């Protein structure tokens, strides 16, 4: 039987998309084929904002290699020690904003890189991957955030992700929203949804005509602005085309009941990690970023300080709060890795083996921008795991991202200000 890459169960008058299954032909779609179809490679980034407690999160730089002693802040990850690597010595040379832990974390861009502008950014590492593999999935990429009202040191942006023009990409900002986007069926008739897309295309056509009409006689500055506007329209058109292509493809089956809309802090992060696993397992996307909540996490840990004050921690209450947050992140990350390891792919491998993930920030600690906290895990990017890797001081963090991007199969010579891959990081 000739099978598509999507397989369905029919029930209660609706189709339900399944995870990719070996018995449904995942290993070899064509009858008689001996070729083994490998699971796709995925990428995930989790950004924490203000950074870590430097004294207790980083392993000793003199204790490098595989036999290093795990730090207090990383101790909840003990059971996974052989399956993640801490990378030390990296920074973004252009970073000057000590409250922006996420804005340039995946780009390394120069804020003043565009003459005459007070802010500019470039494409983030996740979107480089998304541009290469996003055509295969319903969601080109998924961006996750929270509804925290107090700044957690993330900086400008709506997520960790920035597009090829350096524009922020919106995020799903709650577990419930993410759940519905991933799994809830659209009960609107197909013909009506197609009509709505056609209407939006019609509006875009009208905008094209009007924009061309006013183009004559414009200054160079206005032409540049109009070209940027054109690109925005093209982006919308691309989005509409993808939406149309997936109209009659059912969403994946929900692995658990919809969460309450009120969850925050620890519970929210746990749910988001579950949803990330589900999104990757069902091949709804192959690229995810998560801008982790800071203030609500602290509240759920009963830490009384506000995020900014705690980022300036001193021995005593604020430092103890900072250490408590670090341990909570490590516990949550350990649970995420547990799930990735427990989730089996159709070929018998673990989801963990086919995901590369990074956890960290553009801020080290107390607003210092060097030795950015960087934890790499997962088996998809040919990374040497289980090490405390100490690199030369001020190694470009973009070298880490380039190494990961090449490791997942992208033919890429550079990313941002990268100077090359990190051979010591490769398995």
* Largest β-sheet summary: 7 strands, mixed
Strand order of the largest sheet: 5-6-3-7-8-4-9
CATH topology of the largest domain: Alkaline Phosphatase, subunit A
Helix count, DSSP H or I runs of 4 or more residues: 11
Quaternary arrangement of the chains shown?
Answer: single chain
Class of secondary structure makeup: alpha/beta
Number of domains: 3
Full CATH superfamily name of the largest domain? Alkaline Phosphatase, subunit A
Helix content: 25-40%
Low-confidence stretches: 1-18, 22-33
Query: On the 0-100 scale, what is the average pLDDT?
Result: 88
Which H/E pattern describes the elements?
A: EEHEHEHEHHHHEHHHEEEH
Mind explaining what this structure looks like?
It comes from Lentisphaera araneosa HTCC2155. This is DUF1552 domain-containing protein. Pfam families: HXXSHH. The structure is a single chain. The chain has 427 residues and is of the alpha/beta class. It has 3 domains: 1-37, no CATH class; 42-185 and 252-425, Alkaline Phosphatase, subunit A (3-Layer(aba) Sandwich), CATH 3.40.720; 186-249. It is built from 11 helices and 9 strands. The chain has a 7-stranded mixed β-sheet, sandwiched between helices. A two-stranded antiparallel sheet has the order 1-2. The radius of gyration is 22 Å and the shape is globular. Mean pLDDT is 88; it is low at 1-18 and 22-33.
